[in-house]
Amino acid sequence: MKAYLDLVDHVLENGYRRENRTGTDTIMYFGYHYKINLQDGFPLLTTKKVFFKSVIRELLWYLSGDTHIRDLRQYTKIWDSWTSEEKNWDVGRMYGYQWVNWEKYIEDPATGQFKRTFVNQIQEVIDEIKYNPNSRRLVVTAWNPAVLDEVALPSCHSFFVFNVTNGKLNCHLTQRSGDIALGIPFNVSCYAMLTQMIAQETGLELGEFSHYINDAHIYVDHVDGLREQLKREPKKLPTLEIASKPFWDLTFDDFAIKNYEHDPAIKFPVAV
C-alpha cells in the first residue's frame, strides 16, 4: 500500500527525535494526512504480513463494548501489555465501551433523580445514514476526558466521522497518536472494515478512507524494520468479503479476506 510507505518515508525524512513516556525515543511528525480509495481494494499491508484474524477479533471486541480482554486474548495478545490477570484483564471504559455505551444521565422530573442511560453511537450513525444521509453529524468519539485516569491507555484513534457522497460511504479518522510500525496497519484495516460493514448495512458503495494522525511516530528500534519495508514493492490489495447479515449479527466467521499476497512478517518490539 503506497500511502503507508509514503507515510513511513515522510516521517523518517522529516520527523524529529523526541523522548516520551515509554523510555524508547521516537521520530515524530506532527499532523500527517492521507486518503485511500476503498474501491481499489481492502487496505491490508502487502509489504509485510498483517494477521487479519486479529483485526477482525479486535473490531468485534470494540463493537461488543466489553472492557475486558479475557475472551479477546484467546485469539490475540495485542492488549496484554496494557493490563494483567491481577487487573482482571480489564482495560477500562475506552474505545468500544465509549462507542456503544457512552454514558448519559437523564433527570426524572417527578423525583429530581438522575438515571444513567447509554448511547450507542454506532447505531445512531447507522440510523442517521439511513434516514438523513446528508447529515454532518455522523460522528463517533472514544475520547472521554472523565475516564482518562482509569483506562489502560487513552484512546489513540479517538474520533471518526462518516460522510455520504454520490451513494458512497466515506470515513475520516482523526488519531491523536499513531505507532506507525505496529498500530497504524491495524487501525487502517479496522476502520476500513467498519466502513464496509456500515456501507453494507445502509446499502451504500465504498468511498474513501481519510486519515489524519496528529503525532505520527516511529520508535527508534523500529527504524531498521521499516527501512526494510520501504525496499519492498506493494502488491495488489486483497478484497474483504462480509456475509449478508444484519450489522449486529455479524460474527468472526462472517468475514473472509481474499487474494491476500504479502511479503514476510516483520517483528517489532512493543513500547509500553
Secondary structure layout plus pairing:
Blueprint: H1 2-14, E1 16-18, E2 26-37, H2 52-64, H3 96-101, E3 102-107, E4 114-119, H4 121-131, E5 139-141, E6 157-165, E7 168-179, H5 183-202, E8 205-219, H6 223-230, E9 239-242, E10 255-258
Parallel strand pairs: 7-8
Antiparallel strand pairs: 1-2, 2-8, 3-4, 5-6, 6-7, 9-10
Helix pairs in contact: 1-6, 2-5
Summarize the structure in words.
This protein is of the alpha+beta class. It has a single domain (2-258), classed as Thymidylate Synthase, Chain A, CATH 3.30.572.10. Helix content is 26%, strand content 27%. It has six helices and ten strands; from the N terminus they run H-E-E-H-H-E-E-H-E-E-E-H-E-H-E-E. The protein has helices at 2-14, 52-64, 96-101, 121-131, 183-202, 223-230, and strands at 16-18, 26-37, 102-107, 114-119, 139-141, 157-165, 168-179, 205-219, 239-242, 255-258. Strands 1-2-8-7-6-5 form a six-stranded mixed β-sheet. Strands 3-4 form a two-stranded antiparallel ribbon. Helix 1 (2-14) packs across helix 6 (223-230) and helix 2 packs across helix 5 (183-202). The radius of gyration is 19 Å and the shape is globular. The mean pLDDT is 92.
